[in-house]
Amino acid sequence: MNLRSIAHATLLFLGFCHVAFAEPPQWRLNSLSATYGAGDNDIEDQFNRYVGVDLEFLEWRRTEQQIWTIGASVAQVRTDGDGPKVVNVLSFFPQLQLTLDRDFGFGKPVFLVRALGPSWISENDLGTRSQRNHFAFHARVSAGFQTDSGWYYGLSYQHFSNAGLSKINEGWDIPLNLTITYRF
Question: Which percentage of the chain shows pLDDT scores above 70?
Fold first, then answer.
């Protein structure tokens, strides 16, 4: 997949979002998040750590319970495995937020799905795990609680891979992450 194909897919996705959602997109700083995660990579004997900061800046509110956002993330992944120890990551991502209407006293349950966020990775290798080039996708699934004051606290699972676009596609997993977000 070349840069032109990625640009076409991004424009197609944004066009779909524009047609599919009742409210026009709003460009504004929507949230700021900090995430720390750690855990074993499932396949290799390798313990990975993640630290990152996310900004969401484009929002479509289909309803108060269903919100789509576009954002960017700057992160660093470290490992204790043999080989390269550090990878810096810059990602752009679409994210779906589903909020349940029930308040448990400390917040409403929120589910976040971030899928196929195109990412630039500084190294092709993390420990013994390899990617073919400096392009990968970032995926995250998260569950947590949103307070009335705008704070979100959640746990997530993260994965980086090139989605099979090349033959070398040994993904990197960070199975347990804590995210703290402030929504403006």
Answer: 85
Rounded Cα gap, residues 92 and 72, in angstroms: 4
Q: How far, in Å, are 77, 112, 113, 122, 169 from residue 100 at the CA level?
A: 32, 12, 14, 38, 36
One-letter amino acid of 39: G
Three-state DSSP state, 15 = helix
Q: b/e per residue, 30-69, with b = 16+ CB within 10 A?
A: bbebebebebebeebebebebbbebebebbbbeeeeebbb
Average pLDDT score, the chain: 88
Q: CA–CA separation, 106 vs 85, rounded Å?
A: 39
CATH of domain 26-183: 2.40.160.20
- Contact indicator for 47, 85 with CB cutoff of 8 Å: no
Query: Can you tell me the distance from the alpha carbon of 54 to that of 90, in angstroms, rounded to the nearest whole number?
Result: 10
Task: Give the start-to-end residue ranges of the domains of the chain.
Answer: 26-183
- d(CA 30, CA 89) in angstroms, rounded, equals 21
